[in-house]
């Protein structure tokens, strides 16, 4: 007999970008482990990226999805249309204004409608007389999802499992207008944690910060289920249809924002090609994802138009095809508060490709993972000389057909199907306490 879980996720297909991947793959594979998910999400709205290939994955796998309206800023734009990414300075200003006005985030306008529909699901979706759901899983950001999950858990006596894709109070992207704003966030997070039965984070650093901030949390209250990749996405039957190149291809898949910028990589590439002109016809740099005008201007100012290819946002399937046909994949995480806890989703898609990874990253989780892969180099994010040297070293290996590969065993540890099995075990553990379930902190 299958168990049922209500999954609360604001970001869900047809929305694109990395925040969608984790929960989509969870709900796709949960039925294989005895859990039937129902996703509570929003009706399609304007967003920076829309990916209908991911939406097909929802329909083809018959994932039950219940959509509601939401009173949040995205409703000001035409539904179903991708938004243009603003200039980084404007994005930063708008983000700060939004965080000063909305607590915990600008998706708080979804809470009322989500609770109304969630209550109806609990009250009507139980044809066999059992409780409508055996557990609730909320994934954040946005942290409004956790507020919705906590309210439904309290009202219907169902255990709540919290999935943290990023830290909340300690999130490096958060701006607190006053100390009171930060205290308000902390109060909300504490309330949500107290209401939960289990907490899941993507890495050890976030777990450590949560335990330090909230002493009632014990080590065993928080499980780590990292980001991952879906091995099925990397299975290509007709390899002749892949977009191969006769040049050595360096690829970046993702968005540049906050302190993440392509300028140091591009400057390093420009210097290398100026010093070694013969490499200009042998190297190409590919960018996949939303790309701002100021970055296009930088490419032009450095004279790299013949070397750099900017494809803009591609659906996930097309992006994977470029990862497979690249020679080196690179990512960057800038310096700043809390950047040591960042383990960006693209890193694990890179791992799934088993290609060598060049990390322009500070000390922290991402750096450790790249080095552990056995096929990566890491340099400081703004060290142009070191980046140039790394590009040259990788090219020498490419010329010798000796580029390293990430070992299969290492990559398999991050397969989404396997990780979903870990999530299913965490959910099943909650069944032992249905009716009088244990909250976090109760066993400490």
Q: Overview of this structure, please?
A:
This protein is α/β, with parallel strands linked by helices. It folds into two domains: 3-228 and 416-431, Rossmann fold (3-Layer(aba) Sandwich); 231-409, Glycogen Phosphorylase B (Rossmann fold, 3-Layer(aba) Sandwich), CATH 3.40.50. Helices cover 39% and strands 15% of the residues. The protein is built from 15 helices and 13 strands. A seven-stranded parallel β-sheet has the order 3-2-1-4-5-6-7, with helices on both faces. Strands 10-9-8-11-12-13 form a six-stranded parallel β-sheet, sandwiched between helices. α5 (144-156) packs parallel to α6 (179-195) and α8 (263-275) packs across α13. The model has no long low-confidence stretch (mean pLDDT 90).
What's the arrangement of strands in the largest beta sheet?
3-2-1-4-5-6-7
Instruction: Tell me the number of helical segments per DSSP (H or I, 4 or more residues long).
Output: 15
State which percent range the strand residues make up.
15-25%
The first-level CATH class name of the largest domain: Alpha Beta
Q: Under the CATH scheme, which architecture of the largest domain would be assigned?
A: 3-Layer(aba) Sandwich
Name the CATH superfamily classification of the largest domain. Glycogen Phosphorylase B
The N- to C-terminal Cα distance equals 33 Å
Précis, in short:
The protein contains 15 helices and 13 strands.
Descriptors for this entry?
single chain, 444 residues, alpha/beta, Rossmann fold, 2 domains, seven-stranded parallel beta sheet, six-stranded parallel beta sheet, 15% strand, globular
């Amino acid at each position: 007999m299958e168990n049922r879980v209500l999954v609360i996720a604001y970001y869900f297909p047809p929305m694109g970008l990395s925040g969608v991947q984790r929960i989509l793959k969870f709900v796709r594979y949960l039925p294989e482990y005895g859990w039937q998910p129902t996703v509570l999400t929003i009706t399609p709205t304007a967003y920076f990226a829309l990916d209908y290939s991911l939406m097909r994955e929802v329909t083809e796998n018959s994932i039950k999805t219940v959509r509601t309206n939401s009173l949040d800023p995205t409703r000001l734009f035409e539904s179903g249309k991708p938004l243009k990414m603003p200039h980084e300075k404007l994005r930063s200003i708008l983000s700060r204004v939004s965080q000063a006005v909305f607590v915990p985030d600008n998706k708080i306008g979804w809470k009322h409608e989500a609770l109304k529909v969630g209550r109806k699901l609990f009250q009507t979706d139980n044809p066999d007389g059992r409780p409508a759901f055996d557990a609730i899983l909320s994934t954040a950001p946005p942290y409004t999802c956790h507020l919705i999950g906590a309210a439904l858990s309290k009202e219907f006596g169902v255990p709540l499992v919290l999935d943290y894709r990023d830290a909340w109070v300690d999130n490096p992207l958060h701006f607190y207008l006053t100390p009171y704003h930060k205290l308000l966030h902390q109060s909300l997070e504490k309330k949500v944690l107290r209401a939960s039965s289990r907490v899941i984070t993507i890495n050890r650093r976030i777990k450590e910060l949560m335990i330090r901030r909230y002493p009632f949390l014990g080590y065993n209250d928080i499980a780590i289920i990292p980001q991952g990749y879906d091995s099925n996405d990397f299975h290509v039957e007709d390899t002749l249809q892949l977009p191969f190149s006769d040049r050595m291809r360096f690829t970046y898949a993702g968005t540049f924002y906050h302190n993440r910028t392509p300028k140091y990589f591009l400057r390093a590439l420009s210097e290398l090609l100026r010093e070694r002109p013969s490499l200009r016809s042998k190297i190409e740099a590919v960018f996949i994802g939303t790309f701002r005008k100021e970055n296009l201007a930088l490419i032009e100012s450095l004279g790299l138009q013949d070397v750099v290819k900017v494809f803009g946002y591609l659906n996930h399937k097309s992006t994977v095809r470029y990862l497979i046909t690249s020679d080196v994949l690179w990512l960057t995480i800038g310096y700043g508060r809390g950047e040591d806890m960042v383990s960006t989703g693209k890193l694990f898609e890179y791992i799934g490709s088993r290609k060598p990874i060049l990390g322009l990253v500070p000390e922290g989780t991402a750096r450790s993972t790249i080095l552990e892969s056995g096929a990566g180099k890491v340099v400081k994010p703004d060290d142009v000389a070191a980046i140039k040297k790394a590009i040259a070293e990788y090219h020498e290996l490419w010329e010798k057909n000796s580029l390293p590969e990430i070992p299969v065993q290492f990559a398999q540890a991050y397969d989404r199907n396997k990780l979903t099995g870990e999530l299913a075990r965490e959910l099943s553990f909650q069944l032992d306490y249905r009716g009088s379930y244990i909250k976090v902190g109760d066993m400490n």
